[in-house]
Write a structure and sequence with these properties.
The structure is a homodimer of 149-residue chains.
Chain A (H helix, E strand, L loop, with lengths): L2 H25 L10 H11 L4 H11 L8 E5 L2 H8 L13 H17 L4 E5 L4 H18 L2
Parallel strand pairs in A: 1-2
Amino acid sequence: MAQLTETLLLFAARSEHVCQVIEPALKRGAWVICDRFTDATYAYQGGGRQVDATQLALLEQWVHPHIHADRTWLFDVPLDVARARLSHARTPDRFESEGAAFFQRTREAYLARARREPERIRIIDGRRSIDDIRVQLQDEIHTLVTATR
Amino acid sequence: MAQLTETLLLFAARSEHVCQVIEPALKRGAWVICDRFTDATYAYQGGGRQVDATQLALLEQWVHPHIHADRTWLFDVPLDVARARLSHARTPDRFESEGAAFFQRTREAYLARARREPERIRIIDGRRSIDDIRVQLQDEIHTLVTATR
C-alpha cells in the first residue's frame, strides 16, 4: 500500500470516528479517551512513514478543525523493550511488523512533538510497573478534571 | 458517512489504483481507460456533495501529480432519462440512491467542467443509439491515437 493511501485511509477512519462518536460524546458533555489520535499520526505517518507534515496538518484541519486532544499520554519505551514485549504478543499488525528504523523515526518524532508541547503531551516511562503508571495517570487525570471544573 | 470521509476514501482508492495499475501500465507503454477518474470526482463530490474544490485540487495533486486524463468522455443524459434507465437496472449504489438535486448539481458541475475544457472533455449525448455512440467514440479514439503517434 502506498504511504499516501494509508494516510488517507487513516484520516477517513478518523473523520467517521469524529463525526459518529467523538462529536456526539462531547456534545452530551462526556470526556473522550482515544487509543491513538492525530498526535500518533504525526509520529507514525509523519515520522515513521515520512509523509509530508504539511499534508498531515491540512488533513487534520479538514477532518477535525474544532477538536484537539487536551492531553496526550505517550507510553514510551526504548526500542529493545518494545521488541521484547511484541515478541510475546499477538501476531504483529502492519505497523508492528515494521523494522527498527521505522520505530526509531516514529519514537523520535513523538518525543520531539512531546518536547515542543510538554504540558499537553505527557511522556510516561513505560518501563515502570503498571501500578506506578496507574497512580501517575490517576493523579494527572484528577488534576486535569479539577482544572476544567 | 460524512462527505469528507467519502472523499478521502475515494482518493485512497485512487491512490492505490494509480500506484498499482495505472502507473505500471503507462510505464510499459499501454493506453489506460478508466470508468470514472478525477473529473468524475469534481462532478460527484465537488458538484453533488458540494465538497470544497480546493480540497479536491490538493488531493488530486497529492495522489496523481503527474497523471491526468488526456481525454474524458462524459455520457450525458437529462435527469429524467437517467432515472428511467436506473429504474430498470440493478439495486442502486450509494450515488444512484441520491435525490434529483444531487444529480442536478453533479450534472451541472460536469457540464461546466466540460465547457471549460471542450477539447479534453467530450460530451456524448447519451440519448443516441449505442451504435451511433460507438462510431463517434471509434472516430475520436482513432484521431487521438493518430495524433500521439
